[in-house]
Amino acid sequence: RNYYGGNWASFSFSGLLSWIKENQQKTDLSDDCEDWRKLILEDEEAIPLSRKDKTIQHVEDFCFGDQDSAEGVEEAGALPKLPVFGASGAQEVSAGLEKECPAVQSPCSDTEPEGATEGSGAGPTPGSETSPGESPVQPEHTEAAPAETASQEPKKVTYSQIVREGRRFNIDLVSKLLFSRGLLIDLLIKSNVSRYAEFKNATRILAFRKGKVEQVPCSRADVFNSKQLTMVEKRMLMKFLTFCLDYEQHPEEYQEHESSTFAQFLQTRMLTPSLQHFILHSIAMVSETQGTTLEGLQATKKFLQCLGRYGNTPFLFPLYGQGEIPQCFCRLCAVFGGIYCLRHPVRCLVVDRASGRCKAIVDHFGQRISANYFIVEDSYLSEGTCTNVCYRQISRAVLITDQSLLNTDSEQQVSLVTVPPVALGSPAVCVIELCSSTMTCMKDTYLVHLTCPSTQTAREDLEPVVQKLFNVNAEKETENEELEKPRVLWAVYFNMRDSSGVEKDSYDGLPSNVYVCSGPDSALGNDCAVKQAESIFQDMFPTEEFCPPPPNPEDIIYDENEIEPEESALSNSAEAKPESSAEESNSGEGAAVTKE
Q1: What CATH number should be reported for the domain holding residue 375?
Q2: Is residue 385 classed as helix, strand or coil in its secondary structure?
């Protein structure tokens, strides 16, 4: 690939259009040049790798405006001498350049001072939560501009504007939020990777009930300030949430319901239907038909424990999109000598017949790279290796809309909605709505992500939910402006492979020192990826600490034997430029190496 992160990547709008075009092409790449097979010795055998990523299927995109008007329109803000990250077919941005020149990724022109203020503002930093005796972290101020009054006509955004402002979009292939006390936040703090990223609070949890979107009270203050709950309901809700925080101490309250679903358990707790809906779909977020009582109690407790660390909801979202997270780890890796190669295909794994261990890889230059351990993402494995693997699928949709699902005084809201199953047998759908201050979309638009486990194609799974929440007609038809749904300007549907539950034994013929990591899963959080990374690391290096805190540069003590060669190399470089290494001379334009 020519972009970071695989299926965890983020794209500009033009980059996503290129990605869509690539994945809609059905042509498979034939191995027209098999010179690399000559490099395999008699006592070795090769395990060929896949030439094409087959993890994305059923890609369908729709424009609900005048697409012809965008012909000839170019992306604004392009800097000719600087590379563009995210566009498939464009050059990549080096790790250091992205933070030194933030305008490359999301330029802030004079027409949008609010975006500049909000994007550069200090959002909550993991590790800086409030503790006794300290001043609390101030949440990001998201109301830099006065909100439009109800009497003002909303600005109509055209498709040509979206194309022109395409660099303001950072569209994630996978949609997730970070639990404020989740494994990924803990890892970001421990490893100090959090210094490379900024985060914004998810500002509200919404519910879709009886055809309407309404806000869910989460914290104690929200509950008692809520106008949609009666005083009796407020007491009921607080009593139940207090029980969930230490439910392990009261097994008599739930043991006889352990074989029941969480939905059935809630019906025994003297809760009104609206409270049951809020708890099941918006707080616990477990399946109505499959989520057990214990799963529901555990999920509710996790939700409540994450409240208040950085804001009034349990969730954080990284500015510039989820695709920033893998890049942040790459930056720290680069500081300590790691190299990330783009546009550098690998042809095969080389296995020693005698030991059965993998000893090297062969790239598309015919270059052998030897190592003791090899970590490969599932999508690189060929169909022959994955014969016995049964994959799940994720249904995804990304929408660009003209207004929020629930309009309030502030336009800058990050919202989470769980839509219950629209039909028997269909899954619940997780909806994340992002505003422009997350630096993922242009002003006057919202970026909406829909995700659920697949039962059909992504469009078949998600289009019924889109039609319930949004207006998909090209022109506004509703007379009542207050009740009007947000209008969809552009949409894409696609299915993504979920390989998170596949055991290594399921793959045929993989050596013991080859480790397989999965792509994204369908869960809202990132715990699965963190657990998998730590498990692979501990298998390789059982005595080492996983992602230890890096030393400060000024605390590093160099050995004298290491310093002397460096000093001599520096003195020689003043006289003559060093020759390129063999790897650099072989790579040509086919691989890009990013180092800090």
Answers
A1: 3.30.519.10
A2: coil
